[in-house]
Write a structure and sequence with these properties.
The protein has about 100 residues and is mostly helical. Among the domains are: about 35 residues, no CATH class; about 30 residues. It is about 40% helix and about 0% strand. The protein is elongated and about 85 Å long.
Length: about 100
Amino acid sequence: MSIDRSLKVKGALTRHRNVLTRAERIEKLKEEEKWSEDNSVLGLPKVIHRKSHAGKKIKEALAKEAATEAVAGAVTEAAAATAPKTAVAEPKPKPKGKTKES
């Protein structure tokens, strides 16, 4: 029994496939410049077909993070340059660990 057209998912046929058709393999070989028209279409070499979209998102996130750090660094440098220079005594750090107060 078949599925009604209204229940089918639009992108079901566009998902990632591991097995390529012969024509898709030839296109991939042409992109890699490993195919010439003199070659036989039988006995084609293996073609690696990987889907890697996760890396793109990570690279974009790292680029955004670097950009925001650069902007934040520039803002703090500009603020430090325009702020009046006054000598302020820093408070002494508290000793760590147990201390005897008797």
